[in-house]
Amino acid sequence: MAERRADLAAYRAVLASRARAQLTYRTSFAADVLANVGVGISELATVYVVFWRVDTLGGLDVWSACLVFALANLAFALADLLVGHVDELPRHVREGTLDAFLLRPLPLLGQLATSEVSLRRLGRAGVALAVLVVALPRAGVEPSAATLALLGGSVLGGTAVFCALFVAAGALQFWLLEGREAANSFTYGGANAAQHPASLYPGPLRWVFTYVVPASFVAYLPVLALTGRTGPAGLPSWLGWCTPLAAVPVWAAALLLWRAGVRRYTGAGS
Amino acid sequence: MSAPALEVQDLVREYVLRVRRGRFRRQRRVVRAVDGLSLRVERGESVGFIGANGAGKSTTVKLLTGILVPTSGTVRTCGLDPAPNRRDLARRIGVVFGQRSQLWWDLPLAESFRLLAAIHGLPGARWRARRDELADRLDMDAFLGTPVRQLSLGQRMRGEVAAALLHSPELLLLDEPTIGLDVLSSERLRRFLRSEREAHGTTLLLTTHDMGDVQRLCDRVLVVDSGRLAYDGDLPGLARRVGARRVLVVDLREPVPPLHVPGADLVAVEAEGLRQRLAFDPTATTAAEVLAGVSRLAEVRDLSVEEPDVADVVRQLYASARR
What we know:
heterodimer; A: 270 residues; mainly alpha; 73% helix; B: 323 residues; alpha/beta; Rossmann fold; Alpha-Beta Plaits; 2 domains; six-stranded mixed sheet; 10 helices; 13 strands
Protein backbone atom coordinates (compact mmCIF):
# COMPACT_ATOMS: atom_id res chain seq x y z
CA MET A 1 0.00 0.00 0.00
CA ALA A 2 2.79 2.38 0.96
CA GLU A 3 4.57 1.36 -2.21
CA ARG A 4 1.47 2.10 -4.28
CA ARG A 5 1.34 5.58 -2.75
CA ALA A 6 5.01 6.20 -3.49
CA ASP A 7 4.39 5.11 -7.12
CA LEU A 8 1.53 7.57 -7.43
CA ALA A 9 3.69 10.37 -6.04
CA ALA A 10 6.32 9.53 -8.67
CA TYR A 11 3.78 9.55 -11.52
CA ARG A 12 2.37 12.83 -10.24
CA ALA A 13 5.81 14.45 -10.18
CA VAL A 14 6.56 13.34 -13.75
CA LEU A 15 3.13 14.38 -15.09
CA ALA A 16 3.30 17.80 -13.44
CA SER A 17 6.70 18.30 -14.96
CA ARG A 18 5.50 17.26 -18.44
CA ALA A 19 2.53 19.61 -18.18
CA ARG A 20 4.78 22.50 -17.13
CA ALA A 21 7.10 21.80 -20.03
CA GLN A 22 4.17 22.05 -22.49
CA LEU A 23 2.95 25.29 -21.01
CA THR A 24 6.38 26.92 -21.21
CA TYR A 25 5.87 28.01 -24.81
CA ARG A 26 2.44 29.56 -24.57
CA THR A 27 2.00 30.55 -28.20
CA SER A 28 2.87 27.16 -29.59
CA PHE A 29 0.71 25.49 -26.95
CA ALA A 30 -2.24 27.74 -27.88
CA ALA A 31 -1.71 26.90 -31.56
CA ASP A 32 -1.71 23.18 -30.75
CA VAL A 33 -4.94 23.46 -28.77
CA LEU A 34 -6.55 25.49 -31.52
CA ALA A 35 -5.59 22.92 -34.14
CA ASN A 36 -7.12 20.26 -31.92
CA VAL A 37 -10.33 22.30 -31.64
CA GLY A 38 -10.33 22.23 -35.44
CA VAL A 39 -10.16 18.43 -35.40
CA GLY A 40 -13.18 18.33 -33.06
CA ILE A 41 -15.15 20.72 -35.24
CA SER A 42 -14.42 18.84 -38.44
CA GLU A 43 -15.67 15.66 -36.74
CA LEU A 44 -18.81 17.54 -35.77
CA ALA A 45 -19.25 18.59 -39.39
CA THR A 46 -19.90 14.96 -40.34
CA VAL A 47 -22.97 14.97 -38.08
CA TYR A 48 -24.13 18.23 -39.64
CA VAL A 49 -23.68 16.93 -43.17
CA VAL A 50 -25.71 13.79 -42.46
CA PHE A 51 -28.61 15.68 -40.85
CA TRP A 52 -28.71 18.18 -43.67
CA ARG A 53 -30.05 15.28 -45.74
CA VAL A 54 -32.20 13.39 -43.22
CA ASP A 55 -34.24 14.19 -40.13
CA THR A 56 -33.52 11.06 -38.15
CA LEU A 57 -30.63 8.67 -38.27
CA GLY A 58 -30.83 5.22 -36.76
CA GLY A 59 -33.81 6.28 -34.71
CA LEU A 60 -32.09 9.41 -33.34
CA ASP A 61 -32.98 13.03 -34.03
CA VAL A 62 -30.27 15.58 -34.64
CA TRP A 63 -29.81 16.61 -30.98
CA SER A 64 -29.64 13.05 -29.72
CA ALA A 65 -27.10 12.32 -32.47
CA CYS A 66 -25.15 15.33 -31.19
CA LEU A 67 -25.19 13.76 -27.74
CA VAL A 68 -23.73 10.55 -29.15
CA PHE A 69 -21.08 12.59 -30.91
CA ALA A 70 -20.29 14.58 -27.75
CA LEU A 71 -19.97 11.60 -25.39
CA ALA A 72 -17.85 9.63 -27.85
CA ASN A 73 -15.53 12.54 -28.59
CA LEU A 74 -15.19 13.58 -24.97
CA ALA A 75 -14.22 10.06 -23.93
CA PHE A 76 -11.84 9.64 -26.85
CA ALA A 77 -10.14 13.01 -26.36
CA LEU A 78 -9.65 12.37 -22.63
CA ALA A 79 -8.22 8.90 -23.30
CA ASP A 80 -5.97 10.34 -26.00
CA LEU A 81 -4.79 12.99 -23.54
CA LEU A 82 -4.02 10.42 -20.87
CA VAL A 83 -2.53 7.45 -22.75
CA GLY A 84 -2.63 8.28 -26.47
CA HIS A 85 1.17 8.40 -26.56
CA VAL A 86 1.45 4.70 -25.64
CA ASP A 87 1.45 4.03 -29.39
CA GLU A 88 4.86 5.72 -29.56
CA LEU A 89 6.30 2.49 -28.24
CA PRO A 90 8.41 1.82 -31.37
CA ARG A 91 10.15 5.17 -30.86
CA HIS A 92 10.95 4.22 -27.27
CA VAL A 93 12.31 0.90 -28.46
CA ARG A 94 14.44 2.58 -31.13
CA GLU A 95 15.80 5.31 -28.90
CA GLY A 96 16.41 2.99 -25.98
CA THR A 97 14.09 4.87 -23.62
CA LEU A 98 12.18 1.63 -23.12
CA ASP A 99 15.32 0.11 -21.62
CA ALA A 100 15.71 3.18 -19.42
CA PHE A 101 12.12 2.65 -18.21
CA LEU A 102 12.94 -0.99 -17.45
CA LEU A 103 15.81 0.19 -15.25
CA ARG A 104 13.52 2.21 -13.01
CA PRO A 105 11.59 0.83 -10.06
CA LEU A 106 8.13 1.44 -11.55
CA PRO A 107 5.81 -0.64 -13.75
CA LEU A 108 6.56 -0.20 -17.45
CA LEU A 109 3.03 0.64 -18.55
CA GLY A 110 2.64 3.23 -15.81
CA GLN A 111 5.87 4.91 -16.86
CA LEU A 112 4.96 4.88 -20.52
CA ALA A 113 1.48 6.28 -19.84
CA THR A 114 2.86 9.06 -17.67
CA SER A 115 5.82 9.79 -19.92
CA GLU A 116 3.70 12.44 -21.59
CA VAL A 117 0.36 14.14 -21.12
CA SER A 118 -1.01 15.64 -24.33
CA LEU A 119 -2.75 18.72 -23.00
CA ARG A 120 -3.51 19.94 -26.54
CA ARG A 121 -6.21 17.23 -26.67
CA LEU A 122 -8.17 19.49 -24.36
CA GLY A 123 -9.15 21.29 -27.58
CA ARG A 124 -11.16 18.37 -28.92
CA ALA A 125 -12.50 17.58 -25.44
CA GLY A 126 -13.65 21.19 -25.16
CA VAL A 127 -15.58 21.02 -28.43
CA ALA A 128 -17.24 17.80 -27.27
CA LEU A 129 -18.12 19.27 -23.89
CA ALA A 130 -19.64 22.36 -25.52
CA VAL A 131 -21.76 20.20 -27.83
CA LEU A 132 -22.84 18.13 -24.84
CA VAL A 133 -23.98 21.18 -22.87
CA VAL A 134 -25.86 22.65 -25.84
CA ALA A 135 -27.48 19.38 -26.92
CA LEU A 136 -28.61 18.02 -23.55
CA PRO A 137 -31.69 20.25 -23.02
CA ARG A 138 -32.53 20.23 -26.73
CA ALA A 139 -32.61 16.44 -26.82
CA GLY A 140 -35.16 16.59 -24.01
CA VAL A 141 -32.94 15.26 -21.24
CA GLU A 142 -34.27 16.26 -17.81
CA PRO A 143 -31.64 17.48 -15.38
CA SER A 144 -31.71 15.08 -12.43
CA ALA A 145 -29.40 13.13 -10.17
CA ALA A 146 -29.93 10.05 -12.33
CA THR A 147 -28.97 11.97 -15.48
CA LEU A 148 -25.83 13.25 -13.80
CA ALA A 149 -24.86 9.78 -12.60
CA LEU A 150 -25.48 8.33 -16.05
CA LEU A 151 -23.40 11.06 -17.72
CA GLY A 152 -20.56 10.74 -15.22
CA GLY A 153 -20.49 6.96 -15.49
CA SER A 154 -20.57 7.12 -19.29
CA VAL A 155 -17.72 9.62 -19.58
CA LEU A 156 -15.56 7.75 -17.06
CA GLY A 157 -16.41 4.35 -18.50
CA GLY A 158 -16.03 5.56 -22.08
CA THR A 159 -12.65 7.09 -21.32
CA ALA A 160 -11.61 3.82 -19.70
CA VAL A 161 -12.75 1.86 -22.78
CA PHE A 162 -10.67 4.04 -25.11
CA CYS A 163 -7.69 3.97 -22.73
CA ALA A 164 -7.83 0.18 -22.88
CA LEU A 165 -7.97 0.31 -26.69
CA PHE A 166 -4.91 2.57 -26.72
CA VAL A 167 -3.04 0.20 -24.43
CA ALA A 168 -4.01 -2.78 -26.59
CA ALA A 169 -2.91 -0.90 -29.71
CA GLY A 170 0.37 -0.02 -27.99
CA ALA A 171 0.90 -3.63 -26.94
CA LEU A 172 0.40 -4.81 -30.53
CA GLN A 173 3.45 -2.76 -31.52
CA PHE A 174 5.68 -5.17 -29.65
CA TRP A 175 4.90 -7.49 -32.57
CA LEU A 176 4.47 -4.99 -35.41
CA LEU A 177 7.32 -2.63 -34.62
CA GLU A 178 6.36 -0.27 -37.42
CA GLY A 179 2.67 -0.97 -37.13
CA ARG A 180 1.41 2.33 -35.84
CA GLU A 181 -1.06 2.61 -38.70
CA ALA A 182 -2.47 -0.85 -38.05
CA ALA A 183 -2.78 -0.03 -34.38
CA ASN A 184 -4.45 3.27 -35.20
CA SER A 185 -7.22 1.43 -37.00
CA PHE A 186 -7.97 -0.06 -33.61
CA THR A 187 -8.22 3.21 -31.71
CA TYR A 188 -9.44 5.65 -34.34
CA GLY A 189 -11.66 2.92 -35.76
CA GLY A 190 -13.17 2.42 -32.34
CA ALA A 191 -13.63 6.16 -31.93
CA ASN A 192 -15.35 6.40 -35.28
CA ALA A 193 -17.63 3.50 -34.47
CA ALA A 194 -18.55 5.06 -31.14
CA GLN A 195 -19.64 8.41 -32.50
CA HIS A 196 -22.39 7.04 -34.72
CA PRO A 197 -25.63 5.40 -33.54
CA ALA A 198 -24.99 1.68 -33.35
CA SER A 199 -28.45 1.11 -34.83
CA LEU A 200 -26.93 2.11 -38.19
CA TYR A 201 -24.76 -0.95 -38.33
CA PRO A 202 -25.97 -4.28 -39.71
CA GLY A 203 -26.65 -6.91 -37.04
CA PRO A 204 -23.32 -8.73 -36.80
CA LEU A 205 -21.28 -5.52 -36.85
CA ARG A 206 -23.53 -3.99 -34.19
CA TRP A 207 -22.93 -7.05 -32.08
CA VAL A 208 -19.15 -6.72 -32.53
CA PHE A 209 -19.20 -3.02 -31.59
CA THR A 210 -21.14 -3.83 -28.46
CA TYR A 211 -19.81 -7.07 -27.10
CA VAL A 212 -16.30 -7.32 -28.57
CA VAL A 213 -15.07 -3.75 -28.93
CA PRO A 214 -17.63 -2.04 -26.67
CA ALA A 215 -17.86 1.12 -28.78
CA SER A 216 -21.63 1.44 -28.47
CA PHE A 217 -21.29 1.49 -24.69
CA VAL A 218 -19.31 4.70 -24.94
CA ALA A 219 -22.07 6.91 -26.32
CA TYR A 220 -24.97 5.29 -28.17
CA LEU A 221 -26.32 3.13 -25.35
CA PRO A 222 -26.01 5.87 -22.69
CA VAL A 223 -27.88 8.25 -25.03
CA LEU A 224 -30.68 5.67 -25.41
CA ALA A 225 -30.92 5.56 -21.63
CA LEU A 226 -30.70 9.36 -21.31
CA THR A 227 -33.45 10.05 -23.83
CA GLY A 228 -35.63 7.10 -22.80
CA ARG A 229 -35.52 5.41 -26.18
CA THR A 230 -35.59 1.72 -26.86
CA GLY A 231 -32.82 0.50 -29.10
CA PRO A 232 -32.86 -2.09 -31.86
CA ALA A 233 -33.21 -5.76 -30.98
CA GLY A 234 -30.38 -7.05 -28.83
CA LEU A 235 -29.49 -3.64 -27.43
CA PRO A 236 -31.83 -2.91 -24.50
CA SER A 237 -31.45 0.67 -23.29
CA TRP A 238 -30.61 -0.31 -19.70
CA LEU A 239 -27.24 -1.38 -21.11
CA GLY A 240 -26.53 2.37 -21.21
CA TRP A 241 -25.93 2.21 -17.46
CA CYS A 242 -23.27 -0.44 -17.86
CA THR A 243 -20.49 1.55 -19.56
CA PRO A 244 -18.08 1.32 -16.58
CA LEU A 245 -18.68 -2.44 -16.48
CA ALA A 246 -18.01 -2.70 -20.21
CA ALA A 247 -14.57 -1.22 -19.61
CA VAL A 248 -13.55 -4.08 -17.32
CA PRO A 249 -13.15 -6.90 -19.85
CA VAL A 250 -11.44 -4.61 -22.41
CA TRP A 251 -8.96 -3.57 -19.76
CA ALA A 252 -8.36 -7.17 -18.75
CA ALA A 253 -7.73 -8.09 -22.39
CA ALA A 254 -5.50 -5.04 -22.92
CA LEU A 255 -3.40 -5.82 -19.85
CA LEU A 256 -2.99 -9.45 -20.88
CA LEU A 257 -1.90 -8.33 -24.34
CA TRP A 258 0.49 -5.79 -22.79
CA ARG A 259 2.03 -8.41 -20.55
CA ALA A 260 2.50 -10.77 -23.45
CA GLY A 261 4.10 -7.92 -25.42
CA VAL A 262 6.56 -7.11 -22.63
CA ARG A 263 7.41 -10.79 -22.32
CA ARG A 264 8.10 -10.86 -26.01
CA TYR A 265 10.38 -7.82 -25.72
CA THR A 266 12.40 -9.27 -22.84
CA GLY A 267 12.39 -12.67 -24.48
CA ALA A 268 10.66 -14.32 -21.52
CA GLY A 269 7.85 -15.87 -23.54
CA SER A 270 8.31 -18.56 -26.10
CA MET B 1 24.31 -9.27 2.33
CA SER B 2 27.26 -11.51 1.48
CA ALA B 3 26.03 -12.46 -1.98
CA PRO B 4 28.51 -11.50 -4.70
CA ALA B 5 27.65 -8.48 -6.84
CA LEU B 6 27.30 -10.69 -9.90
CA GLU B 7 27.08 -14.42 -10.27
CA VAL B 8 26.46 -15.90 -13.68
CA GLN B 9 26.30 -19.60 -14.44
CA ASP B 10 26.18 -21.15 -17.94
CA LEU B 11 24.32 -18.16 -19.30
CA VAL B 12 22.82 -18.54 -22.77
CA ARG B 13 20.79 -16.03 -24.71
CA GLU B 14 19.50 -16.72 -28.19
CA TYR B 15 17.83 -14.45 -30.69
CA VAL B 16 15.55 -15.65 -33.40
CA LEU B 17 16.15 -13.98 -36.72
CA ARG B 18 13.79 -14.38 -39.62
CA VAL B 19 15.72 -14.22 -42.81
CA ARG B 20 13.90 -13.59 -46.07
CA ARG B 21 14.21 -16.32 -48.64
CA GLY B 22 12.28 -15.41 -51.72
CA ARG B 23 9.13 -13.38 -51.73
CA PHE B 24 7.11 -15.14 -49.04
CA ARG B 25 9.36 -17.69 -47.48
CA ARG B 26 11.14 -16.78 -44.30
CA GLN B 27 13.73 -18.91 -42.69
CA ARG B 28 14.05 -18.98 -38.95
CA ARG B 29 17.62 -18.69 -37.77
CA VAL B 30 18.70 -18.88 -34.15
CA VAL B 31 21.70 -16.79 -33.17
CA ARG B 32 23.47 -17.27 -29.85
CA ALA B 33 24.56 -13.87 -28.56
CA VAL B 34 25.67 -15.28 -25.21
CA ASP B 35 26.87 -18.85 -25.21
CA GLY B 36 27.54 -20.51 -21.87
CA LEU B 37 28.98 -17.54 -19.99
CA SER B 38 29.98 -18.04 -16.34
CA LEU B 39 31.50 -15.35 -14.15
CA ARG B 40 31.55 -14.02 -10.64
CA VAL B 41 32.22 -10.49 -9.47
CA GLU B 42 32.65 -9.78 -5.76
CA ARG B 43 31.36 -6.68 -4.06
CA GLY B 44 33.65 -3.69 -4.41
CA GLU B 45 35.48 -5.02 -7.46
CA SER B 46 36.05 -2.96 -10.56
CA VAL B 47 35.80 -5.01 -13.70
CA GLY B 48 36.32 -4.15 -17.36
CA PHE B 49 34.19 -6.12 -19.77
CA ILE B 50 35.72 -6.02 -23.22
CA GLY B 51 35.25 -7.69 -26.55
CA ALA B 52 34.70 -6.93 -30.21
CA ASN B 53 31.42 -5.49 -31.48
CA GLY B 54 28.81 -8.23 -31.46
CA ALA B 55 30.74 -10.34 -28.96
CA GLY B 56 27.76 -10.27 -26.60
CA LYS B 57 28.73 -7.48 -24.19
CA SER B 58 25.57 -5.41 -24.42
CA THR B 59 23.34 -8.48 -24.38
CA THR B 60 25.12 -9.60 -21.21
CA VAL B 61 24.57 -6.20 -19.58
CA LYS B 62 20.88 -6.42 -20.48
CA LEU B 63 20.69 -9.91 -18.97
CA LEU B 64 22.42 -8.71 -15.80
CA THR B 65 19.95 -5.85 -15.38
CA GLY B 66 16.74 -7.73 -16.17
CA ILE B 67 15.98 -6.00 -19.47
CA LEU B 68 16.37 -9.38 -21.14
CA VAL B 69 15.57 -12.83 -19.80
CA PRO B 70 18.10 -15.65 -20.30
CA THR B 71 17.33 -18.48 -22.68
CA SER B 72 19.00 -20.76 -20.14
CA GLY B 73 21.44 -20.57 -17.27
CA THR B 74 21.23 -18.43 -14.16
CA VAL B 75 22.02 -14.82 -13.31
CA ARG B 76 22.18 -13.33 -9.82
CA THR B 77 22.72 -9.61 -9.60
CA CYS B 78 23.15 -8.39 -6.01
CA GLY B 79 21.79 -11.81 -5.10
CA LEU B 80 18.57 -11.34 -7.10
CA ASP B 81 17.24 -13.02 -10.22
CA PRO B 82 17.05 -9.85 -12.34
CA ALA B 83 13.93 -10.13 -14.53
CA PRO B 84 11.37 -11.28 -11.92
CA ASN B 85 12.82 -8.80 -9.40
CA ARG B 86 13.30 -5.99 -11.87
CA ARG B 87 11.86 -3.27 -9.65
CA ASP B 88 13.74 -4.30 -6.50
CA LEU B 89 16.92 -4.60 -8.47
CA ALA B 90 16.40 -1.16 -10.04
CA ARG B 91 16.71 0.37 -6.58
CA ARG B 92 20.06 -1.33 -6.02
CA ILE B 93 21.86 -0.89 -9.32
CA GLY B 94 22.69 2.06 -11.54
CA VAL B 95 23.14 1.78 -15.29
CA VAL B 96 24.72 4.20 -17.75
CA PHE B 97 24.41 3.64 -21.48
CA GLY B 98 26.97 5.80 -23.25
CA GLN B 99 24.86 6.14 -26.37
CA ARG B 100 21.45 6.43 -24.79
CA SER B 101 20.07 8.93 -22.38
CA GLN B 102 17.95 8.42 -19.33
CA LEU B 103 17.59 12.15 -18.77
CA TRP B 104 14.67 14.26 -19.94
CA TRP B 105 15.85 15.96 -23.08
CA ASP B 106 13.88 19.17 -22.64
CA LEU B 107 14.38 19.62 -18.88
CA PRO B 108 17.28 21.07 -16.91
CA LEU B 109 19.53 18.51 -15.24
CA ALA B 110 18.36 19.62 -11.81
CA GLU B 111 14.75 18.84 -12.79
CA SER B 112 15.76 15.41 -14.16
CA PHE B 113 17.38 14.64 -10.81
CA ARG B 114 14.27 15.76 -8.96
CA LEU B 115 12.09 13.45 -11.07
CA LEU B 116 14.47 10.51 -10.67
CA ALA B 117 14.43 11.05 -6.91
CA ALA B 118 10.60 10.93 -7.01
CA ILE B 119 10.72 7.78 -9.16
CA HIS B 120 13.04 6.09 -6.68
CA GLY B 121 10.98 7.39 -3.78
CA LEU B 122 14.02 8.98 -2.12
CA PRO B 123 13.37 11.13 0.94
CA GLY B 124 13.95 14.83 0.24
CA ALA B 125 16.86 15.41 2.60
CA ARG B 126 18.69 12.33 1.40
CA TRP B 127 18.57 12.96 -2.33
CA ARG B 128 19.35 16.66 -2.02
CA ALA B 129 22.48 15.85 -0.04
CA ARG B 130 23.43 13.23 -2.61
CA ARG B 131 22.73 15.60 -5.52
CA ASP B 132 24.92 18.27 -3.94
CA GLU B 133 27.70 15.74 -3.37
CA LEU B 134 27.54 14.54 -6.99
CA ALA B 135 27.24 18.06 -8.42
CA ASP B 136 30.29 19.06 -6.43
CA ARG B 137 32.45 16.06 -7.30
CA LEU B 138 31.42 16.02 -10.96
CA ASP B 139 31.74 19.79 -11.19
CA MET B 140 28.20 20.25 -12.50
CA ASP B 141 27.05 23.34 -10.59
CA ALA B 142 27.56 25.62 -13.59
CA PHE B 143 25.10 23.72 -15.81
CA LEU B 144 22.55 22.18 -13.44
CA GLY B 145 19.95 24.66 -14.73
CA THR B 146 20.66 24.08 -18.43
CA PRO B 147 18.25 21.93 -20.49
CA VAL B 148 19.90 18.59 -21.24
CA ARG B 149 19.66 19.07 -25.01
CA GLN B 150 21.94 22.12 -24.75
CA LEU B 151 24.69 20.33 -22.83
CA SER B 152 27.97 19.24 -24.42
CA LEU B 153 28.55 15.50 -24.62
CA GLY B 154 31.01 15.62 -21.72
CA GLN B 155 28.57 17.56 -19.55
CA ARG B 156 25.72 15.25 -20.47
CA MET B 157 27.73 12.14 -19.62
CA ARG B 158 28.52 13.57 -16.20
CA GLY B 159 24.80 14.17 -15.82
CA GLU B 160 24.03 10.59 -16.89
CA VAL B 161 26.50 9.15 -14.40
CA ALA B 162 25.12 11.34 -11.61
CA ALA B 163 21.57 10.26 -12.55
CA ALA B 164 22.57 6.60 -12.29
CA LEU B 165 24.20 7.19 -8.90
CA LEU B 166 21.55 9.42 -7.31
CA HIS B 167 19.95 6.52 -5.45
CA SER B 168 23.37 5.32 -4.21
CA PRO B 169 23.37 1.90 -5.93
CA GLU B 170 25.66 -0.91 -4.79
CA LEU B 171 26.55 -1.80 -8.36
CA LEU B 172 27.15 0.55 -11.26
CA LEU B 173 27.09 -0.85 -14.79
CA LEU B 174 28.49 1.36 -17.50
CA ASP B 175 28.10 0.54 -21.19
CA GLU B 176 30.75 2.49 -23.14
CA PRO B 177 30.79 5.44 -20.72
CA THR B 178 33.60 7.35 -22.42
CA ILE B 179 32.57 6.80 -26.02
CA GLY B 180 33.00 10.04 -27.99
CA LEU B 181 34.48 11.95 -25.06
CA ASP B 182 37.66 13.98 -25.43
CA VAL B 183 40.74 12.99 -23.44
CA LEU B 184 40.14 15.53 -20.68
CA SER B 185 36.48 14.64 -20.20
CA SER B 186 37.07 10.91 -20.08
CA GLU B 187 39.97 11.36 -17.64
CA ARG B 188 37.78 13.49 -15.39
CA LEU B 189 35.04 10.86 -15.51
CA ARG B 190 37.47 8.07 -14.66
CA ARG B 191 38.86 10.04 -11.74
CA PHE B 192 35.34 10.55 -10.44
CA LEU B 193 34.46 6.87 -10.77
CA ARG B 194 37.58 5.92 -8.84
CA SER B 195 36.72 8.33 -6.04
CA GLU B 196 33.10 7.13 -5.98
CA ARG B 197 34.31 3.59 -5.56
CA GLU B 198 36.67 4.57 -2.77
CA ALA B 199 34.06 6.64 -0.95
CA HIS B 200 31.10 4.23 -1.20
CA GLY B 201 32.54 0.84 -2.09
CA THR B 202 30.47 0.79 -5.28
CA THR B 203 31.09 -2.22 -7.50
CA LEU B 204 31.88 -1.20 -11.09
CA LEU B 205 31.41 -3.14 -14.30
CA LEU B 206 32.11 -1.34 -17.52
CA THR B 207 32.09 -2.37 -21.14
CA THR B 208 34.51 -0.35 -23.20
CA HIS B 209 36.63 -0.09 -26.29
CA ASP B 210 39.07 2.21 -24.59
CA MET B 211 42.17 0.66 -23.05
CA GLY B 212 42.56 3.83 -20.99
CA ASP B 213 39.28 3.07 -19.18
CA VAL B 214 40.50 -0.40 -18.30
CA GLN B 215 43.97 0.74 -17.29
CA ARG B 216 42.80 3.54 -15.04
CA LEU B 217 39.67 1.98 -13.59
CA CYS B 218 39.76 -1.77 -13.53
CA ASP B 219 41.54 -4.34 -11.39
CA ARG B 220 40.25 -7.10 -13.53
CA VAL B 221 39.42 -7.68 -17.16
CA LEU B 222 36.90 -10.04 -18.70
CA VAL B 223 37.16 -10.61 -22.43
CA VAL B 224 34.18 -12.09 -24.27
CA ASP B 225 34.40 -13.70 -27.65
CA SER B 226 31.31 -15.03 -29.45
CA GLY B 227 29.37 -14.97 -26.20
CA ARG B 228 32.01 -16.93 -24.28
CA LEU B 229 34.57 -15.85 -21.74
CA ALA B 230 37.97 -15.77 -23.45
CA TYR B 231 40.01 -14.21 -20.64
CA ASP B 232 39.56 -13.46 -16.95
CA GLY B 233 42.41 -11.80 -15.11
CA ASP B 234 44.37 -8.57 -14.77
CA LEU B 235 45.47 -6.31 -17.58
CA PRO B 236 49.23 -7.03 -17.58
CA GLY B 237 48.32 -10.70 -17.69
CA LEU B 238 46.19 -10.08 -20.76
CA ALA B 239 48.98 -8.22 -22.52
CA ARG B 240 51.40 -11.04 -21.60
CA ARG B 241 48.96 -13.66 -22.78
CA VAL B 242 48.72 -12.23 -26.26
CA GLY B 243 52.24 -10.80 -26.26
CA ALA B 244 50.80 -7.34 -26.83
CA ARG B 245 53.47 -4.85 -27.65
CA ARG B 246 53.75 -1.16 -27.06
CA VAL B 247 54.98 1.03 -29.89
CA LEU B 248 57.54 3.81 -29.51
CA VAL B 249 57.05 6.48 -32.17
CA VAL B 250 60.06 8.74 -32.68
CA ASP B 251 60.24 11.92 -34.76
CA LEU B 252 63.81 12.56 -35.81
CA ARG B 253 65.72 15.75 -36.55
CA GLU B 254 67.10 14.36 -39.85
CA PRO B 255 65.83 11.60 -42.12
CA VAL B 256 67.83 8.46 -41.33
CA PRO B 257 67.90 4.94 -42.71
CA PRO B 258 65.65 2.36 -40.99
CA LEU B 259 66.61 2.05 -37.30
CA HIS B 260 67.50 -1.33 -35.88
CA VAL B 261 67.54 -1.32 -32.09
CA PRO B 262 68.04 -4.38 -29.87
CA GLY B 263 64.86 -5.55 -28.13
CA ALA B 264 62.58 -3.75 -30.59
CA ASP B 265 61.19 -4.39 -34.05
CA LEU B 266 60.87 -1.67 -36.63
CA VAL B 267 57.26 -1.71 -37.75
CA ALA B 268 57.05 1.39 -39.94
CA VAL B 269 59.18 4.10 -41.50
CA GLU B 270 57.31 7.26 -42.45
CA ALA B 271 58.18 10.60 -44.05
CA GLU B 272 61.30 9.18 -45.66
CA GLY B 273 62.76 8.18 -42.31
CA LEU B 274 61.74 11.26 -40.30
CA ARG B 275 59.26 9.24 -38.25
CA GLN B 276 59.84 5.62 -37.31
CA ARG B 277 57.81 3.18 -35.25
CA LEU B 278 59.38 0.54 -33.06
CA ALA B 279 57.36 -2.16 -31.33
CA PHE B 280 58.63 -3.73 -28.13
CA ASP B 281 57.48 -6.26 -25.58
CA PRO B 282 56.98 -4.37 -22.28
CA THR B 283 57.76 -7.48 -20.25
CA ALA B 284 61.20 -7.85 -21.89
CA THR B 285 62.42 -4.27 -22.15
CA THR B 286 61.31 -0.71 -21.37
CA ALA B 287 60.48 2.35 -23.44
CA ALA B 288 63.55 4.05 -21.95
CA GLU B 289 65.91 1.31 -23.14
CA VAL B 290 64.48 1.39 -26.65
CA LEU B 291 64.73 5.18 -26.66
CA ALA B 292 68.36 4.96 -25.53
CA GLY B 293 69.03 2.59 -28.41
CA VAL B 294 67.41 5.00 -30.88
CA SER B 295 69.34 7.97 -29.48
CA ARG B 296 72.63 6.24 -30.19
CA LEU B 297 71.69 6.14 -33.89
CA ALA B 298 69.81 9.40 -34.46
CA GLU B 299 68.79 12.67 -32.82
CA VAL B 300 65.25 12.43 -31.44
CA ARG B 301 63.08 15.56 -31.73
CA ASP B 302 59.82 14.21 -30.33
CA LEU B 303 58.37 10.91 -29.20
CA SER B 304 55.24 9.15 -28.07
CA VAL B 305 54.38 5.67 -26.82
CA GLU B 306 51.30 3.93 -28.17
CA GLU B 307 49.54 1.50 -25.89
CA PRO B 308 48.19 -1.73 -27.30
CA ASP B 309 44.68 -1.07 -28.55
CA VAL B 310 41.93 -3.06 -26.85
CA ALA B 311 40.62 -4.09 -30.23
CA ASP B 312 44.08 -5.36 -31.24
CA VAL B 313 44.60 -7.22 -27.99
CA VAL B 314 41.20 -8.80 -28.29
CA ARG B 315 41.81 -9.72 -31.90
CA GLN B 316 45.09 -11.38 -30.99
CA LEU B 317 43.46 -13.18 -28.12
CA TYR B 318 40.71 -14.42 -30.43
CA ALA B 319 43.26 -15.52 -33.00
CA SER B 320 45.30 -17.44 -30.43
CA ALA B 321 42.13 -19.06 -29.04
CA ARG B 322 41.21 -20.36 -32.47
CA ARG B 323 44.60 -21.63 -33.41
